[in-house]
Amino acid sequence: MAARRVCSAVLAIGLLLAAAVAAVPPHLQLVTDTDGGLSLDFHAASCPQLEGIVRAAVQAERGQDVQVTAGLLRIFFHDCLPQGCDASILLDGEKSFGPNASLQPRALQLIESIRAKVHAVCGATVSCADIIALATRDAVSLAGGPSIAMPQGRTDSLRPATNAEVNTLPSPFSDVSTLLGTFSRRGLADPADLVALSGGHTVGKASCSFIRGNDDFSRRLAANCSAGRTGKQSLDVITPDAFDNRYFVALRSTQGVLLSDQGLAGDQRTARFVAAFASNQGAFFDQFAKSMVKLGSIKAAAAGEIRRNCFRPNGRVSLDDVSALIGFAASA
């Protein structure tokens, strides 16, 4: 009897795996076109409702927590830099590794929530990677930032980035040479890209332990942060919830929070951009929009798919599914 139950469980799991793969239309199981064919109207015919669904969802979430803008920006950056913009950041193995362990849960869940709404209306035509890009675009503009002409047409990775790839992400303690090298290797060789994208910190926060603490200002900041209730410090000490150029104004006054931020104001390769953006918000917005498009166009390393759940590849059965089937077979 026990052997029969085990056989039933194995058969049930096998059937579930086969059904999961069969349930995906053949043209969506694997998208082999990796020529980087992104365009602004990629989904215009297949999902004309996409833009409205994404913006409404992000706006509603910002009504609950304005920090979702920072959360989405960090997810977008952490997704694109290691192995291209492919939503690998949402997969187990990458989502919780190293610096990704502190990604904002609400922002992560928002992406899957938008995916479900979009697929309910349009079918599985829009990737989680595109949803990350579009949600981040809208979160920036809703926070007062620039409009970004973000191209679409990405696919979703079949695997998470490796630990080594994730470890290429910049550290809050990185110096300018390290930062420039990291960005250059991903096709962002212009120092203006590094400085402008660092400007996303205008709405960000960091743990108290990352405050640089190498002068009186930052030591006071660290002391106040440690005594606070949240354990977090806003990276823009002037207007922490608005997407503007005050982050750069603070850097010019030696009021940067992180070593990686304050270093930009003191290095001749980047200082002129800090000065330009501090004095001209329009110049910052223009460069930020251009640099975000460049970041969002980093090509994924391999062919991908359109995931039907942003948190796992198509055809992968969750442990909950397997447990339920084993329980059912055992009780049969």
Describe this structure in words.
This protein has 332 residues and is mainly alpha-helical. Strands 1-2 form a two-stranded antiparallel ribbon. Helix 11 crosses helix 13.
Topology of this structure?
Blueprint: H1 2-22, H2 26-29, H3 50-64, H4 68-83, H5 105-122, H6 128-142, H7 163-166, H8 176-185, H9 191-198, E1 205-207, H10 216-227, E2 232-234, H11 246-252, H12 259-266, H13 271-279, H14 281-296, H15 319-331
Antiparallel strand pairs: 1-2
Structural class: mainly alpha
DSSP helix count? Answer: 15
Cross-sheet strand order for the largest sheet: 1-2
Helix content: 40-55%
Q: What is the radius of gyration computed over CA atoms, rounded to a whole number of angstroms?
A: 22 Å
Q: Could you report the average pLDDT, rounded to the nearest whole number?
A: 89
Please write the string of helix (H) and strand (E) elements.
Answer: HHHHHHHHHEHEHHHHH
Write a concise synopsis of the structure shown.
With 332 residues, the protein is mainly alpha-helical. It is built from 15 helices and 2 strands. The protein has helices at 2-22, 26-29, 50-64, 68-83, 105-122, 128-142, 163-166, 176-185, 191-198, 216-227, 246-252, 259-266, 271-279, 281-296, 319-331; strands spanning 205-207, 232-234.
Which structural traits does this protein have?
332 residues; 2 strands; 53% helix
